[in-house]
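User: quick one, fold this
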Amino acid sequence: MNDDASSHIVTKTVEIVKVLGNRRVRQEDIVVKEAICTIAVNGTRVANLACTPSDIESLAVGYLLSERIIDSYSDILALLVKEDECIVEVEISGKIETADRIATIVSGRRSTGQSEDGPFHAQNVTSKLTVSSSSLVVIVKDFQKASELFRSTGGVHSAAICKPDGIIFFKDDIGRHNAVDKVLGMCSIKGISTEDKILLLTGRVSSDILLKATPRGMPILVSQSAPTHLAIRLASESGTTLVGFARGEAMNIYSHDWRIRT
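Assistant:
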């Protein structure tokens, strides 16, 4: 396996043996890179995230928001990105309890913002935003076309922040949690309100994904995949419109369907 010349390139070329019926063909294939991004806060490492090594500033900010380490981007006094080492060093205004936080976290991580034993509570979402189902169909189609990395590797999840008329930010990562953190982090960095936006993603909507969106006041969460029963319950309780299996002209609305106009 050969490294690409630039650290900004997020794919690698590998040699594989492809089986076609009773034939074996040796050929090259493109796979997505995986790296460990270290996030340090006030000089203390708080996480090693298995991720796609791109947009690591927005990943770090989104992670700190999701883990309730910061409340907003304004809590950050200084931020240094060391791209070649995949390290983000952050200085914040408050203190952090890190005794049980430092760990290597796989790409399919759960949020540590909630305890293992619960209870799970989602913040109330009060936005009156609505969107037509026909507009969502167009947005999802554009979303499916947006990821060149998925088309070349098939190895990433994607997430996007959208307005009812289109996509604002789009990010890829090997982990669905990381992809969501990247777009939420970018909104925080850019000072863009999420209370009138739609979160769109490719992966399964579990409770921890939903709990990333509700503190940001996001009213509509749309996935091409399935939600879990706990995510549906939390969406119903919090006032979040949760849409799953958004593919082609079809979609399933699991909660607060009034926001999706037909």
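User: anything notable?
Assistant: The first strand starts at residue 11 and ends at 20.
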